[in-house]
Amino acid sequence: MVQTKTQFGYRRHPDQDRASANIAEHAVVVVGAGPVGLSLAIDLAQRGQSVVLLDDADRIGEGSRAICFSKRSLEFWDRLGIGQRMVDKGVVWSVGKIFHGEQQLYQFNLLPEQGHKRPAFINLQQFYAEAYLVDRVSELPAIDLRWRNKVTALEPRNDRVALTIQTPDGPYRLNAQYVIACDGARSSLRQMVGAEFAGQVFEDQFLIADVKMTAAFPTERWFWFDPPFHAGRSALLHKQPDDIWRIDLQLNRFADPAVEKLPENVRPRIARMLGHDKFDFEWISLYKFQCRRMSKFIHDRVIFAGDSAHQVSPFGARGANSGLEDAENLAWKLDRVLRGTSPEALLESYHIERSAAADENIRESTRSTDFMAPNSHQEARLRKAVLSLAKETEFGKRMVNAGRLSTPSVYETPLSTADGDSWRGGPRPGASMLDAPVAGLRGEPMFLTEAFIGAGTRFTLLEFNNGAAPELPEGLGAVRIGGKDGLADSAGLAATRYDAEPGTAYLLRPDGYVAARFRHPTRPALDAALARAAGQS
Amino acid sequence: MPLSTASNFAKPDDAFRAIVEAHRGLNDEQSADLDAALVLVLANHIGDLDVLNEAIALAKRRMLDASQQQQQQQQ
After folding, report:
1. How far are the Cα atoms of A105, A221, A227, A230, B17 from residue A102, in angstroms, in the given order?
2. What is the span of the domain harbouring residue A517?
């Protein structure tokens, strides 16, 4: 049932033959070649950094684990050159339906408007995402990916971290200026730095199965409260590529995992759900969820990203997507610090921004999990009232919580410059850029997110032309809309989404978040905002 | 706008009566279900989280007072 999708070979590296007095020195070592570690390594390499990427296994994982990748993650992967491949393979969706018993309570559309390059979500098995990321890594000589290299010891020094690494040929050592721990929820690096990982454990158990079948269900997220096939509990059905369907069934908190997991026990439940038993199991797993995070994501020169730093319940697709947001947040900051163009203090903003995002993700997913598995009779009673009110009232529908799906956090951050002008809309400082359709210089249709990549995925000024092109600070990318040499806002959506008037300008960070915005930027105001966003003031 | 604790009904007895009568004929379980739905409907009508939190605090203070009195009686 468990399939290994891709096998990689261990190869001895010259670092392993060095004498102990002459240990290899590296700028960045990323530990863990999952979606987060791979994406981070690619982003760093594309920015010109050399990266050693270590993984203790030699294959891409078992089962499908994460399946929902958000618009924000796809935009990040577009910057890494692999967004299209993910979308081509993935199942695109934006509609979710919620049922109570036999009856549909309501449906929601996560991206009801047109004019975005990427959909609200794709479903894609994590092993495909990882395989495509590994392919991209192999195109980048700056990344040195070493399989079956397991970090067994970590010693902080003043200006570096000394790592001991176990391999099939025995141990070796190397030094790194920064170590990025992307080694998952059971992170051994987290234990090595002695950090706590406290939070809430949910007692209810959930059975997660991927089944293979051909079915005519639409590509939507279907969620049931108290379905006829699974009385008193909840269920989720979601399509993946290759005719694989993700099924998620809530079990009671006293269910015996070993018994529940047996295919002969799982099969009848799912047959009742689907109305037939013409399916095969790809993967079955039993879960108890935890919501927790490290109190500090940065431990001297060891920085934690993804599940190693924070863990949420899966309702809301906030696990892998938030890890990818960690990676895009950290990559440009670490690059600038290593180059010396920003002080080391810039890294602290990674902790500030991403730990707040982790808190938000934990809050949202805890609320969803509590709604699905009420903790007391009174909580169950309130849920029952919400579900019954949802049948006839709009407010009741909106209170039904079957998972609030991941959207990018808005950062309250020292890198932002507060608005000085008046705005009726548009992304505020700390929010991520919005996409819009535009036309290039030859009239070719394109998207703002593509123009941002074209401008170099660096600090970029998005300007709405008013005739006078301001002189830009050195090193700043430019995306100009309107005028002779600008992109055409043919549908008017860029101006609408950015609440733009002629002269309006948004300063975007290298991760595509808004650092500052101005109705009429002056050079001193731009310089000051840029310095603040780069952690220089 | 803060939580209003002034008397807002022209005839408060009518309002109290309406709630009492809504529970007539219900057992405790059904009454609790009704209250849960009613609280949600009214909370949404108020539509102001600060007012809701004040109302929760006021209601909860009654309960704390009651349990303190109980403890004192037991002592």
Report:
1. 9, 16, 6, 11, 37
2. 437-533
> What token pair was written down for B37?
């739905």
pLDDT in tens, A164-207: 999 999 999 999 999 999 999 999 999 999 999 988 888 888 89
Q: What is the CATH number of the domain that holds A146?
A: 3.50.50.60
A474 lies in some domain: yes
As for how many domains chain A has, the answer is 2
Q: How many angstroms away from the CA of A381 is the closest CA of chain B?
A: 6
Q: Predicted confidence band at A125 (pLDDT cuts at 50, 70, 90)?
A: very high
Q: Read off the pLDDT of residues B18-52 as tens digits, 9 standing for 90 and up.
A: 999 999 999 999 999 999 999 999 999 999 999 99
Residue to substitute from B33, B34, B40, interface A, most A β-carbons within 10 A: B40
Residue A331 sits in the same domain as residue A456: no
Tell me the pTM: 0.94
Helix axes A35-46 and A126-138, enclosed angle (nearest 10): 30
Taking CA–CA distances from B42, the nearest residue in chain A reads A395
Domains of chain B by residue range: 12-74
Same domain, A359 and A449: no
